[in-house]
Design a protein that fits this description.
Distance between the termini: 56 Å
Largest sheet: 2 strands, antiparallel
Radius of gyration: 21 Å
Number of helices: 4
Organism: Dulcicalothrix desertica PCC 7102
Protein name: DUF1230 domain-containing protein
Shape: elongated
Mean pLDDT: 92
Order of helices and strands: HHHEEH
Structural class: mainly alpha
Keywords: Membrane, Transmembrane, Transmembrane helix
Low-confidence stretches: none
Strand content: 5-15%
Number of strands: 2
Pfam families: CGLD27-like
Number of domains: 1
Length: 165
């Protein structure tokens, strides 16, 4: 990012563009910015790790040697909970930064929770921040929304299969 000629009273770590850069480089959040193939692989890893918890729980309710279909469906549904929790965390984090970047006024704390201030962004900074939202963050949020939609479709499909068996 280029330095602005406008003086900003907001502490560096609370400036929305710096919050964006920090989030973009955080280990879990940077997965959303990866190529589609890498993103899918990382979501699949989260799903596989969730199976370590969901599998034994499902096996306790549906012994695999007697009820293989019920075991597989309930373990798959249980494992998807881990994925959904991670996706919710990702969505909330990116939404928070999007809202801070898009807002024309920024709330910030000078030294603690008791002395909050607001700062109106100059047009130059507001334009830059909104471009970041449009071209960087919105595609990430769309990807997360599509992932949620796919998870929902898979859940419905699993429910239909459960009713059939």
């Amino acid at each position: 990012m280029t330095k602005s000629s406008v003086s900003c009273p907001v502490p560096t770590e609370q400036q929305p563009v710096n919050e964006y850069e920090q989030l973009k480089s955080a280990w879990l959040f940077r997965d959303c910015t990866a190529e589609l193939r890498e993103y899918i692989i990382r979501i699949a890893w989260i799903y596989a790790l969730s199976w370590l918890i969901a599998g034994p729980l499902s096996a306790a309710s549906f012994p695999p040697h007697k009820f293989i279909a019920q075991f597989a469906l309930s373990a798959a549904a249980g494992a998807s909970i881990g994925v959904v929790l991670v996706l919710v965390r990702l969505y909330l984090g990116w939404s928070y930064v999007r809202d801070r970047l898009f807002s024309p006024v920024i709330f910030y704390e000078e030294s603690g929770w008791y002395d909050g201030q607001t700062w109106a962004k100059p047009t130059e900074i507001l334009t830059r921040d909104r471009l970041i939202v449009t071209y960087q963050i919105q595609p990430i949020l769309r990807r997360l929304q599509l992932t949620f939609a796919l998870m929902f479709v898979l859940y419905i499909a699993g429910t239909i299969v459960w009713q059939i068996i």
